[in-house]
Amino acid sequence: MVPDTLGVLGLGAVGGSIAWQAARLGVPRILGYDASTRDGVAAVKAGAVTELVRDAATVVANADFVVIAGSGDDTRAQLCALASLLLERGVFCTDVTAVKRPVVALAEELGLAAVFAGSHPHVGPTSDGFRCANPGLLSGTLVYVTPVMGGDRAADEVRDFWTRSIGANPVALDATQHDQLHAWTGHLPQTVASALAAAMAAGGPAGVTYGNSALEATRQARCGTALWAEVLVANRDNVLDALRGFAASLDELREALAAGNRRRVETWLTAAADWRGRFEP
Amino acid sequence: MVPDTLGVLGLGAVGGSIAWQAARLGVPRILGYDASTRDGVAAVKAGAVTELVRDAATVVANADFVVIAGSGDDTRAQLCALASLLLERGVFCTDVTAVKRPVVALAEELGLAAVFAGSHPHVGPTSDGFRCANPGLLSGTLVYVTPVMGGDRAADEVRDFWTRSIGANPVALDATQHDQLHAWTGHLPQTVASALAAAMAAGGPAGVTYGNSALEATRQARCGTALWAEVLVANRDNVLDALRGFAASLDELREALAAGNRRRVETWLTAAADWRGRFEP
């Protein structure tokens, strides 16, 4: 759907960008709420929201589509608080958290199938405020939409919102599959980059020059640590599975090195290089 | 020293760049040798060498400074073959391999203290040919110079060569320290990037979209696998040490995740983020 009145709860980098882009694509009325006055005022000044509202319930009471744009904890708390109002008014609602099973399970528990589907826009978890919002942030971006059991119609409305009000590319995916995939495609790389940086912090030689390879392999370690801790813990079963796969690969190398077997080391490096080569032109 | 006649054995990306830059900085005569006719001819055409010579001994017989620019295996074979001629003529000599203990130990065994010191220009191991040579490749580049026991004078001459004939920045370092440092600064990041790619190749989900974080963390996996296998095996004691440190960091995270302890996960992520933050403006 293209809402007449869009409500956005949380006007940080992601929520702020959603509101701003919807404003640009012609949604006439956009109600914003943020616990931080600074982000709220910045969003109004930028023209990302048409009205700043003092509490989340007032947003839901007046909007016909609501995006909850907060951390996992915030999102679940909002869903609990707003569930009956969402159902009573028949307001379609989605969220933007990076791990989908917890919020989808909660929505099922709360009986929100008629109005809710989860979303995960592929922009990486961020805890930055509205100053990092950008109306183009979600334009053309892949957005996973994870339906609640029996919630296919709500999922259709949510996908339609992403396509028509934001210009993003929504793809429907089961929450369980979503979380498995992302353990590999996003959470494992983050974990490995952080582990490399943590190892260097703990045991690396002091005062040396790290070259481009070390800096590139650890770049992701500089992340929003509170949000990433939430993500990794929320998806820990899948992350631990992926880490077992990673540890097995590393063990293969360690054995080959301990044996001084250059041929095995080369075979191992070649499998890795071939995989990575698929992503280069 | 600035040689009157420089000899370069191996005209690939590194050897070719050394010859070429020396030519540009005014070394009048540059003798080149390469087992591949194609690289040799390309070096002559580019003006990187003034004469292409048919064997390594002829280069040593006519040069007053020799750079052996090959793999570890090639370099040690050349040193064995050329040792008596180098000593007899008093020709200063260096190499460019990435692990320094093996070549320094061999030079000590061969009694080459008067003429040899190892070098490691910080350009990453490469197996590319002369087509990847570039006279600017080593300009301003850090070059570790590792003396042979009792070989301080030769090490001085080698450092002088890098400074005056190439415009690089040589730093003297003991071979043992060099190899320890590089296990952390270069070999561990390479190993981790390759292990991540190898794990994804073996166990990652098929047909999914890998985002920037996964591609960045694995970029180094696409490397010259034969040369890297040689490097990792040559430095395997230090690499295995560094890998133990890395595995310990990863184990900390796995324990915190298994316990669902978000606070510990965040503390761990923060130590990593703080370390990495030191390298950003």
Gist?
The structure is a homodimer of 281-residue chains. By secondary structure, chain A is of the alpha/beta class. In chain A, 55% of the residues lie in helices and 12% in strands.
The largest sheet of chain A has its strands arranged as 3-2-1-4-5
- Low-pLDDT runs of chain A: none
Distance between the termini of chain A: 38 Å
Give average pLDDT of chain A, whole number. 95
Q: Rg of chain A from C-alpha positions?
A: 21 Å
CATH class of the largest domain in chain A: Alpha Beta
Number of domains of chain A: 2
Fill in the CATH topology of the largest domain in chain A. Answer: Rossmann fold
SS-based class of chain A: alpha/beta
Work out the strand percent of chain A: 5-15%
How many distinct helices of chain A?
A: 11
Largest interface: A-B, 82 and 82 residues
Strand tally of chain A = 8
CATH architecture classification of the largest domain in chain A: 3-Layer(aba) Sandwich
Oligomer description: homodimer
Instruction: Give the helix level of chain A as a range of percent.
Output: 55-70%
Walk me through what this model shows.
The structure is a homodimer of 281-residue chains. Chain A is an alpha/beta fold and 281 residues long. Chain A folds into two domains: 5-173, NAD(P)-binding Rossmann-like Domain (Rossmann fold); 178-203 and 210-277, Orthogonal Bundle (6-phosphogluconate dehydrogenase C-terminal fold). Chain A is built from eleven helices and eight strands. Chain A has a five-stranded parallel beta sheet with strand order 3-2-1-4-5, with helices on both faces. In chain A, helix 10 (236-258) runs antiparallel to helix 11 (262-277). The two termini of chain A are 38 Å apart. At the A-B interface, helix 7, helix 8, helix 9, helix 10 and helix 11 of A face helix 7, helix 8, helix 9, helix 10 and helix 11 of B.
